[in-house]
Amino acid sequence: MVYHPLATRHRYTKVNNVFTKLSSIIIFNPSEELRNRNSRNAQSFQRPFNHFPCSFKLQTSEHEGGSINAPSVSAVEAAKSLSDDNSGPSLREAAEHAASCHPYISQVLMADSDKLTYPLAESWARLVHLVQQKGSYSHIVTASGSFGKNILPRAAALLDVSPITDVIEISGSHKFVRPIYAGNALCTVRYTGSDPCMLTIRSTSFPVVPISDNARSDAAPISQIDLSTFGEDAIDKSRYIKLSSQNSERPDLGNARVVITGGRALKSAENFKMIEKLAEKLGAAVGATRAAVDAGFVPNDLQVGQTGKIVAPELYMAFGVSGAIQHLAGMRDSKVIVAVNKDADAPIFQVADYGLVGDLFEVIPELLEKLPEKK
Ligand SMILES: Cc1cc2nc3c(=O)[nH]c(=O)nc-3n(C[C@H](O)[C@H](O)[C@H](O)COP(=O)(O)OP(=O)(O)OC[C@H]3O[C@@H](n4cnc5c(N)ncnc54)[C@H](O)[C@@H]3O)c2cc1C
After folding, report:
1. Which of 274, 289, 294 maximizes ligand 1 atoms within 8 Å of its Cβ, making it the mutation to test the pocket?
2. Residue ranges of the chain with pLDDT lower than 70?
3. Taking the alpha carbons of 354, 306, 204, 178 in that order, is the dihedral positive or negative?
4. What is the residue with the minimal CA distance to atom 27 of ligand 1?
5. Residue 242 falls within a domain, yes or no?
């Protein structure tokens, strides 16, 4: 199956202009070593994404700390300082960290401009477009997070190529596997378009290698992109109004080792606090079904599923979740799934490793009582 370019344009016009997270796309030049290896053996692209050197997503907190700690390490170009007031560690620090965090990074491109102070998808897509015009990269890859999914189709439309989204396996330099029908079928896609081949990668499908395992002693060169050569209005088409984000001490839902999810059965935002308490005790992230989000129990950035976040933690605990396919699409790759539901026929039990038929209003208080306090 190959995407028709029209699909790109369609997607482009439908993308919402919503910023859920400050992120940076990083684009880089495959090193000489990798180029040689790939020309000897195209199968080398089967290596996990964290060894697949095309791009990566830089997350807010990591950038704010002046260092890069993303699961997918391969990169690139730290194109933007993400802090609201620019008082945090500098873009230069982030670029320096990118330059030394992985042996496959052969170049870091840094875009420093007040036009890029805020993570506007339009500006970023334009930047990717402009960088590609100068660099002629064969592949541009980003993690399948909200921001990557916001930018990549836009950049692809500007470059007149069709992006391939949610890749879970790389079978060749132009052959990829991606889920369809809410994860119920896998589709092998061959990209036959012109360069660049643009991908969003489902990072839960690739192992995370700690940055320290990849650290290098000789940093890759950092080049500053001369944005003035791109023209006055090249990246000036949208306006930043405000950013709303949740400050939480809990682990990020997308990367958490343990996720505790509540469904519609919780009945109210007040009752949902039981899920939050349990998550606190277990050092877990909180997730929710769409029904729980739609009912207003929790904000929609906690939604797990086809139209929410894709998670694959070590442990996923679902309380009062029926297990609709749209929900399973977001969590079925979890290592161990525990489900508590009072209906023994609930579909969630078909994917659960451990199931308890019971009333969550009895089970959760008992768990809270028996679990030790978090130190
Ligand atoms: C296009 C589309 C996209 C969607 N995307 C998503 C998505 O991303 N994520 C998502 O989650 N959904 C998504 N949905 C919605 C999905 O189809 C389901 O409606 C939703 O997941 C149901 O949520 P739920 O399990 O909380 O609620 P319900 O289906 O109502 O299930 C509640 C469950 O709780 C159990 N229960 C009730 N009381 C108790 C109790 N006291 N103790 C224990 N168990 C109890 C019931 O037996 C039942 O199984 C999408 C739907 C569509 C059409």
Report:
1. 289
2. 1-90, 208-216, 229-237, 245-247, 375
3. positive
4. 264
5. no
Q: Is residue 191 part of a domain?
A: yes
pLDDT at 87: 34
Residues 113 and 224 reside in one and the same domain? yes
Give the pTM.
0.68
Is 277 found in the same domain as 180?
Answer: no
Tokens of 103: 């042996």
Q: Which atom of ligand 1 is nearest to the CA of 288?
A: 11
Measure 290 CA to ligand 1 centroid, in angstroms. Answer: 7
Q: Which residues contact 85 (CB under 8 A, 6 or more apart)?
A: none
Query: What's the pLDDT score for residue 24?
Result: 33
Ligand 1, CB cutoff 6 Å, lining residues: 263-265, 289-292, 303-308, 320-322, 324, 326-327, 330, 340-343, 346, 359-361
- Tell me the CA–centroid distance for residue 265 and ligand 1, in Å: 8
Q: Are residues 218 and 281 in the same domain?
A: no
74 domain residue, yes or no: yes
Which atom, in ligand 1's list, is nearest to the CA of 292?
Answer: 26
Ligand 1 centroid vs 143 CA: distance in angstroms?
27
Query: Rounded to whole angstroms, what are the CA distances from 156 to 22, 55, 120, 272, 317?
Result: 20, 15, 16, 40, 37
Q: How many domains are there within the chain?
A: 2
Closest Cα partner for 152 from 133, 169, 165? 165
- In this structure, are 186 and 262 located in the same domain? no
Distance 287 CA to ligand 1 centre (A): 12
268 and 216 both lie in a single domain? no
Residue 108: φ, ψ to 5°:
-115, 130
Which domain CATH number covers 307?
3.40.50.1220
Token pair of 189, please? 């896609």
Closest residue by CA, ligand 1 atom 4: 326
- 246 inside domain: no
Q: Identify whether residues 53 and 195 lie together within a single domain.
A: yes
